Amino acid sequence: MRPENQSSMSEFLLLGLPILPEHQGVFFALFLGMYLTTVLGNLLIILLIRLDPCLHMPMYFFLSHLALTDVSISSVIVPKMLMNMQTHHFFISYPGCISQLYFYIFFACVDNLLLAVMAYDRYVAICHPLHYTTIMRKELCVLLVSASWVTSCAHALLHTVLLVRLSICANNVITQFFCDLNVLLKLSCSDISLNELVILTEGGLILLLPLAIVLGSYIRIGTIILKAPSTRRFLKAFSTCGSHLFVVSLFYGTIAGVYFLSSSWDSKDIIASVMYTVVTPMLNPFIYSLRNRDIKQALQCLLTGLKKFICQ
User: Fold this and answer.
1) Residue 1 domain-assigned?
2) Which of 77, 229, 239, 282 is within CB 3.0–4.6 Å of 277 for a Cys-Cys bond?
């Protein structure tokens, strides 16, 4: 392959989803419905937390930011995918690809860090209930969330800058429906050893440290429960942590499918990517709202207020 400077590589071809042409319309409607559900569901969660004073608690403060990242990561990927399916034009410009990559890494990292912060919050709530309000004060919550956003910004910027310095080969075909870092590195004719080193060290730290916090928090919670086992205590812990545990499993399970269990079968990687970028952000509002009494009550109050307003 002859190398091309990044400035001369004007666009990339996104192979997209392995869908037959006659099925494009059905899948377009399916993904459009899933995207609208993601946006409306997560924005509703944010609105309820903002409006209801009963939800002005650390757990819901973190949840509102998680909902925002879910909307954002889906909005970075899905609208472009839908436009490609509708127009049958599967190209993306070089600046558009780099921008998509940056925001994808950024919001995925925020998601990862927020899940660790929420796990720590649940640990304090269950293991130190008497000191919960003292430990999880407003200043600490704001600091944890701010640190997550700033760290993610620096993390995404680092990997994006390291990528744009590379020369891209004449082959501009991306075997995905969005611009993924691993796929783009495979198109480079330059030495990518520095990129791989940073991914293994800094990227590994960003991924594994939050995972260690999540595992450590839940191991400690489990230890506390087993010291004095009771059905009531177990059910209370499960109601408090069940939704978060399910979301964590979805998040890390799909990441493992995309980056650690990849093989020569590209369709498997694409399915895992769809789960991570489309399905998981859509499911999160249902996971947190269906099992959460406070959010259900806030939603009921909102609907009651809307009915009164319409009747007037």
Assistant:
1) no
2) 77
